Amino acid sequence: MADLWQSAMDHAVAIARKAGEVVREALVDERKVMTKSSSVDLVTQTDQKVEQLIIQSVKEKFPTHKFIGEESVAAGESCVLTDSPTWIIDPIDGTTNFVHAFPFIAVSIGFSVKKQMEFGVVYSCLEDKMYTARKGKGAFCNGEPLQVSAQQDIKQSIIATEFGSSRDPETVDNIFRSLRSILCIPVHGVRGAGTAAINMCLVASGSVEAYYEIGIHVWDVAAGSLIVSEAGGVLVDVEGGDVDLMSRRIVAANSRTIAQRIVKEIASFSPSRDDAPPAKQ
Ligand code: LIP
Questions:
Q1: 233: which of 68, 122, 167, 228 fits an S-S bond (Cβ 3.0–4.6 Å)?
Q2: Ligand 1: distance of its center to the CA of 124 in Å?
């Protein structure tokens, strides 16, 4: 089985690179923007085209595998993780960046078997950085090994986060409460690339000590979660327990010490889970 997953990972790297080319080409065209859950939750035809490109190409090689894809779920497909080999795809992580040509955009492909991530591929397509990780085999960027930062003092740290796509005032208040507490620790700085996948790769690379967010989706973080843990980092829930990729809450950090310190400052809340059954009409 091990070799089969290696060939799946090789395929993921090749298709992520191809998808990245499509994204780069689309950046020079006018982008037709549509909205999903809110007026700031954006999608373009390129998101949909790239997701179909990835799914079709994987289906040809691995016809029995299952998929959880951001745009397929938006179109009504279920978002339930089973024990089956499952590809978890975000065709464009950083769609708002893509719409505005803000230069951090990723193709994110995670692969799970028995609900455990087997490999993760994040292609930061404008930087041409291919981040990869395979369970038990380390994390890499363009083939170079990745290692999280050794910093254990939160006051000497940079923390990444995002504002997400909810503009519900209560949610925004919670986001600002967390941000205020973390800034006032004080930390050296707070940053956000506009894509969860790249933020997690920045943790894995040692460029930031941690990333946290409430409101992300499983496709934003599936691949990145393995890249962080294989680079020596840890993943916890925003209340400090085990991370649950369907819960839409995550803290990814270089160490348990930094993760738990951030947890202490987060104003936690619980968005509706990715695998929640659809609300009855
Ligand atoms: C986005 C994330 C971003 C987060 C948004 C959204 P999309 O993904 O990567 O960091 O703040 O809530 O989930 O929609 O660009 O794939």
A1: 228
A2: 14
